[in-house]
Amino acid sequence: MDRVYAEIKRRYMTLQLPPGEWIDDLQLSKELSVSRTPLREALFLLASEGLIRAHPGGGFTARPLDLAGISDLFEAHIVTAKAIARLTAIRAEPEEIAELREREAAVNDAIARRSATDIAATNAALHSAEARIARNEYLSVLADRIHDEGQRLGYLAFGGAEQWSQRRLDDHFAKVSKDHAALIDAYAARDPDAAEQVACAHVRLFRERILQFVASSGADDVDFSGDVLTAMRISRADLTS
């Protein structure tokens, strides 16, 4: 089941399972060359993680991308990022700082190759490692769910594998790399205040990229409704940053 789970999750992250649409489990079982039993087990596991929705009458849909969900995502993201940054700065051991440097290098390599899929995956792996190093089980579980959904949203906003607006995204990812380096430097210096400040700025950077995407023509592919720009600004200085 692990292989099936990993492949369905990959398709979810890269939008091959379109947001909000029904999943044809019979067709999917044929594509993955598995019976429906392990396929449905994998789908139920993904449903327990909040990525897939299992419906009472039977059947599954990929979690939709809508305004309310994305607004909630950023609200949770800013809160958990602050807590994880502070704890990681306090608790990270030298070998864990070295691990974060290696993961940072993997992100930078993906950026240099302009691979949207690899950027999303390596970035999520870096921040998941931070959550693990913070040594708080509850924060780690929440962070993994946030990063899973953020990875899908990032893949959408960064144009997938086919599009790359060179100047705009190069500028964005230069800032991403700078934030990662500053964050790990703060961890190495055991400076929780500096780490929290950089973490907040990093979440805002991602949110601004999403706002730019919403304002672009690409937003036609997503079910956004209402006053997006207002609703996605969390306010109160991003929950007292």
UniProtKB/TrEMBL annotation:
GO molecular-function term, one example from the UniProt record: DNA binding
Keywords on record: DNA-binding, Transcription, Transcription regulation
Ranges where the HTH gntR-type domain occurs: 1-65
Alphabetical list of PANTHER family matching this protein: TRANSCRIPTIONAL REGULATOR, GNTR FAMILY, UXU OPERON TRANSCRIPTIONAL REGULATOR
InterPro entries xrefs: GntR_C, TF_FadR/GntR_C, Tscrpt_reg_HTH_GntR, WH-like_DNA-bd_sf, WH_DNA-bd_sf
SUPFAM superfamilies noted in UniProt: GntR ligand-binding domain-like, Winged helix' DNA-binding domain
Protein name (record): GntR family transcriptional regulator
